[in-house]
Amino acid sequence: MSLPHDSVLDRFLRYVVIDTQSDPTSHTQPSTEKQKNLGRLLERELKALGLEDAHLDEHGNVYATIPANTDKDVPAICFCSHMDTAPDFSGTGVKPQIVKNYQGGDIRLVGDTNQIIRVAEHPDLKDQIGHDIVTTDGTTLLGADDKAGVAEIMSAAQFLLRNPEIPHGPVKILFTTDEEIGRGADKVDLEKLGAKFGYTMDGSTVGEIENETFSADGVTITVKGVAIHPGTAKGKMENAIKIAADIIARLPKDQAPETTEDRQGFIHPVGVNASMEGAELGFIIRDFEEKGLAEKETLLKAITEEVMASYPGSTFTFTVKEQYRNMKIVLDRHPEVMENLLEATRRVGLEPKVTSIRGGTDGSRLSFMGLPCPNIYTGGHAYHSPLEWVSVQDMETAVKTIVELVKVWEERA
């Protein structure tokens, strides 16, 4: 297979038109078979670059290795991006549009003219004068989350392979499925991958590096009420729908996603399934500190117990399930991972800004599986929406960052 186009933009445009939306209601991995369509293309392109071990596994993950070309003992580092797009908005029939040499102002999308990327709401546009901006036509998301990352890793791989005079250690490539539904690392074989440290290319604004995520738990509360015919219910009925509503009504309003920012955590109801005789309530609990996580769970249980005290005939269960933990706990044990990234960022002319993710990434899970893994910018913005956009020049900067990072690891070995 010969590669018809090689620029990061050409790759990006090739990848975003492939529908790879994941499905949280599916129990398979990948959750949608169509994710493998992109995986098969990437496998072919990696092999065409000369990476013999490139392959797509049964779970839709793609692995490949750029062999070391230095005599130094450089640790193997991995670059990882996810191929799926979010279930939040349609990813079918993506029609990317390019605003060349952007000169400022709002961008009205051509497929749905009610969709406007407004500078007032997207102030990062002010830094994009003269750039080429890729948007959707307004009827789908773009998929820069995370096909910008995929295109950047592929372009960096091509650059390293075409410039063998750049010394580097082993570089591992990993593309995952189902990251958007929290399962991106579930079926990754770290032994097969063979990397010591990793970087996810799944961030946003260039220069922003994320070394910290929320710690996250899920809580399920089940309520068994007392169901009885409403005509003879006085003094007997305990309606589980009302019990569920009472629990939710008592949640602290200052600990919700819509009222918190920066390093504040929250208690967030994500689902209620209720009838008169029984109810199930689903919550996600988020905090940067495990102590804060535990405090929020204790508070939620206390609220539930307080409500249930008014319903003596009813019972409840309260189940906590760990989802992921703050990757900074792991990264702090391996300071060179961040130090090398900060140096590479400065070398491409950016002043690094280290931030925290109010969410999780594959890197969070991978860090605790044994692959310390901060998150690098891709240049994408307004993810999971029809207003999603990315600058071509910012994607090129991300490619250069990968190349510089590989060089820094070799120099410092």
In the predicted model, the low-confidence regions spanning at least 5 consecutive residues are none
If helices are DSSP runs of H or I spanning 4 or more residues, what is the number of helices?
10
The strands making up the biggest β-sheet line up spatially as 1-2-8-3-9-16-10-15
Major beta-sheet overview:
8 strands, mixed
What Rg do the Cα atoms give? Answer: 24 Å
Structural class: alpha+beta
What does this structure look like?
With 413 residues, the protein is of the alpha+beta class. It has 10 helices and 18 strands. Strands 1-2-8-3-9-16-10-15 form an 8-stranded mixed sheet, sandwiched between helices. Helix 8 (335-347) packs across helix 10. It is globular. It starts with 7 loop residues before the first helix and ends with a helix. The mean pLDDT is 96.
List the helices and strands and how they pair.
Layout: H1 8-16, H2 35-48, E1 55-56, E2 62-66, E3 77-82, E4 97-99, E5 107-108, E6 116-117, E7 133-135, H3 144-162, E8 171-176, H4 190-193, E9 197-201, E10 208-213, E11 215-224, H5 240-249, E12 266-274, E13 278-287, H6 290-308, E14 315-324, H7 328-331, H8 335-347, E15 353-357, H9 362-369, E16 375-376, E17 380-381, E18 389-391, H10 392-412
Features:
single chain; 413 residues; alpha+beta; four-stranded antiparallel sheet
